Amino acid sequence: MAANELVAFRERWKQELKTRKEETGLVCVPSSSSSSSSRDYPEQKDVKKPCDTQKQDESSCTEDEGSVSGGRFAVEADQPQYVSIARSLLDGRTSPLLDRIQEERTRRKRQYDNMTNMCSVSLQQQQQQRQPQRKVKKEEELVDQLIQDLNEVNDIPFFDIELPYELALKIFQYLNCMELGRCAQVSRAWRVLAEDGVLWFRLCQREGYHQGASVSSSPCWKSTLRDCRNSARTVRSNWKNRVGSVSQLQFELGKILCDVSSCDNFVLAGYTSGDVRLWDTLHWDSTSSFLKTNSLSANTHPRPHVSHVQINSTVAAASYEDGCVDLWSTETGGEPIHHYQIPGRIQALGLSPDRPVLVSAAGSDVRLDSANDCGYWRTVCETQLPKTVESLTFVPNRADQSPLVVLAAGEDVYLLNPQEEQPRTLHSVYGHPVTCLDASNTLTAFGVKRTGWAMHDGGNKIHVYSLETGKPTVCVGSSPGDFTCVNLRDSPPHLLVCGNKDRRVRVFDLRSSSSLVSLYAHHLGVASVQADDWKIVSGGDEGLVCVWEMRMGTKLWEMHNRHRGVISHYDFSEDALSQDHILPICRSDYIDSSGYNYNINLAVPYDRLAGSHPPL
């Protein structure tokens, strides 16, 4: 509608110009004022045409250009401009108006040059004219400048968003980082939209960074995401090149280490002396490293051994051989904040990774304790299973829902929900005991040992069940050895990694029920395993920890803990390439007999072999 009015305004203006030229005979004036100007200065009618010696083709060319321009605007008025812009963008051109803008600039430049030449001649002829006539010319030049500005606004459209800002954000939230960067180059308005903090906050959450943060936690989420990506890239490079710092977490010499648990920067360990030690790897001078036991266990002689330890970001838990359970705060340490005792020896202990919820099993008795909003602990659920509980695990990522616990007791697998009266049975096959167990937020996986006639059906298997329906989804694996460990919680989506007594580490695709990777890892059997999107870390009964590249199936490096009871903490987040930051096990010069006797095989050794052995 605005384009049609502008075209009509131009046509009326041209008619006035043409009428005034015929009356006054002034060719140099590009645009005439209103009819009132003619009435104010009637003596201009007697002024003769000063530019008769000029070529007539210039004025005719100007009129032809004006008619062509008016026709072009009339054609474009029938079809909206945003339709042609959208079609050009769909064709893949990054700037669909470049040709059009260049053509318009060329036409204006030619028109301006002609106008300048004509006006210069006219000014020389009209130097003797009166002062009011100069004032009329100045007003006419200002009006012509106004028309030129209107032409620019109409011919070069702005890439502005006419939608509400919230609706535009709704559209932009489906774009990734690269697409947002391209949109930021379109216009200033799109740049403001593409750099909105809410969009980059969602991208940061989508990639797994700062899950517990809010939008106001960072002043610039775009820079935060860039820093997180650079840090992840540095850590991956350090993992592959074995660049990092190592720390020995040793409590007391001569004490035997019973169990270890870690979460984020916390490391918790329990010993045969009954002591429990907590390390904060970010603050080595923290006073919370010394955890006191309950008075009952402390006054018993000899003190009972620590059987299990568990830790999350807020609390740490430990169970003892006499059935006592202690809980500490990771912030304060010191005295236990909660304590109870169960008759008998505790077979399994679990701590929720998302909230302060603790489950313990002694024989067939299962107890679930939780802390309320005020920090007071209470028993939420107590139940008894038909058989002795051997292993259990929490279902992660249920911070806003009721906690779920998966328990394995002999040949049965149960799902415990505090809101239900009795645990729900997921799997039960007589004579096929469960050997390992793990769970993610939607699935649970456990290894089953087959005996007798069932061994003819492919050997031992890993069953995967859906926690929502309680039905089996897939069954993978076919091995004569027992599955000793399985990791589903930390594995990439649709992947499962497991270890077996047949010395192999396998990665299965749950969508196709096929084996993607099979590695000969440890000659005494696989004890633990974990994987992410590019690497696999496995531990064996012989004491070796191996790091594998998942895509190539090759071993990057391996290390051995030389001393029993010492916890080795490796930090690969440091961006350092000096010799001091290379792991000590990777800098062995084979002079030390203990290092040589372990016969360490390194893929890319940093060993200093020159002069290591004396000549014979």
From TrEMBL:
Domain of life: Eukaryota
Pfam families the UniProt entry points to: F-box-like
PROSITE patterns per record: FBOX (PS50181)
Keyword Coiled coil: yes
Ranges annotated as biased composition (Basic and acidic residues): 40-58
Parts forming coiled coils: 98-156
Name of the protein this chain belongs to: F-box and WD repeat domain containing 8
